[in-house]
Amino acid sequence: MSPQLELDRRTLRLIAIAFALLAALSIHRLYFAGLPEATDALVLQGRTMGTSYEIRVAGDGLDESLRQRVLSETRDRLARVDGWMSNWNPESEISRFNAFRSTSDFPVSSETAEVVSFALELNAISGGAFDITVGPLVALWGFGSHARIDSPPSDEEIARLRRHTGAGALHVHRDPETGEAYLRKRDPEVEIDLSAIAKGFGVDQVAEGLEELGRRDFLVEIGGEIRTAGERPGGGPWRIAVERPQDEGRAIQEVIELQDRAMATSGDYRIFYLEGSRRISHTIDPRTGRPVEGGPASVTTLADSAMRADAWATALMVLGAEPGLALAEQNGIAALVLKRDAKGAILERPNALFPEAAGPPTRLPQRG
Ligand code: ADP
Ligand code: MG
Q1: Each residue of 209-243: pLDDT tens digit?
Q2: Is 103 exposed, middle or buried (0-12, 13-18, 19+ CB in 10 A)?
Q3: Residue with CA closest to ligand 1 atom 6
Q4: Domain 93-185 has CATH 2.40.50.140
Q5: What are the residue ranges spanned by the domains of the chain?
Q6: What is the pLDDT of residue 105?
């Protein structure tokens, strides 16, 4: 089994933003023809966590000095997130905790404790579907920061690793006097993989930085996880495209409007390989120790923070439309599950909290 198809990264793209910008620009030109051109948005791009990020700032004062301040604030914050939560950085808190084969307290930043706490909470809510201890199984199946595999693992190997997974083997607590945060393993072999939640948390951190700089209208995206604040250039909510899950090329499934909300997407169409006609995706069902099969093609979730949206999207990839959509709804999470029917056509399954499409699917514009 050789990886036949492995696309660089899964992302939900901000194509609609470019589209909205173009639309706003043409209206702007229409109304302000003859006047000197105003800048509509400050756009910054870079790379972090093995993927790309993009920031769009609207409003006043979009000058070079702001660009520099946003850039430096963003880089500082992303470097901190990397130092806390990256499995690729051997010096990060998480990597050092993973290497720490002991059941004693391990001091961590309050941010790492916050993310791990939420992950444990969602583990309980989702009946174990979301589980940050699946890392060894992710590696066993040839994903993550590890080498690809040549053949599927044996039942024995899966069973052996499953003995050291399960969020029940993790504990987070704070010293009531000092406020210091600690992680603790109940099983010294257990490891943490925050890949399904750290990008969302990174988005929230960058958004916080923009707020600190006094910005009210912006959009932050890291590898498809998004947070919006205020209005898009030209006014009105930000318009975001939900990508159609397909193996080649990019297309828009629908466009939705977001104001002061976060959105995340997980899917089986960016990071996977084919074994015959079976699609082996990087989402592991912790209850079986195997990649999810026959599940959603993608899940898009909306929440008040990108961290929550990100984690819930992964949880719903495991749970599927049933019981995932109802569970999300009970927890205030808007969700859209896209499924393939027998002929490969995409079916939409939203829960009641998911907004109506703001417009018909549009032609894919070039990314700005
Ligand atoms: P993406 O990285 O494409 O945005 P996700 O947010 O769904 O996708 O994260 C997938 C990653 O999360 C996997 O590569 C793996 O490291 C980890 N993971 C896989 N299955 C689970 C799970 N059931 N619970 C938590 N994390 C998972
Ligand atoms: Mg996720």
Answers
A1: 999 999 999 999 999 999 999 999 989 999 999 99
A2: middle
A3: 196
A4: no
A5: 93-185
A6: 98
Tokens linked to 157:
């190997």
Residues 338, 346: Cα–Cα separation, whole Å: 6
When pLDDT is averaged across residues 255-260 and rounded to a whole number, the result is: 94
Q: Which amino acid type is present at position 308?
A: R
Residue nearest to atom 12 of ligand 1 (CA): 196
Q: 132 CB less than 6 Å from ligand 1? A: yes
Closest CA to 203 of 145, 263, 291: 263
| Helix (H), strand (E) at residue 19 | helix 15-32
Looking at all shown ligands, the one closest to residue 309's CA atom is 2
**What pTM, to 2 d.p., does this model score?**
0.87
Determine the residue of 49, 194, 282, 298 to mutate for testing ligand 1's pocket, defined as the one with the most ligand atoms within 8 A of the Cβ atom.
282
Query: Are the C-beta atoms of residues 87 and 95 closer than 8 Å to each other?
Result: yes
Three-class secondary structure of residue 288 per DSSP: coil
User: Which amino acid type is present at position 58?
Assistant: A
Preceding omega of 323 cis (within 30 degrees of 0): yes
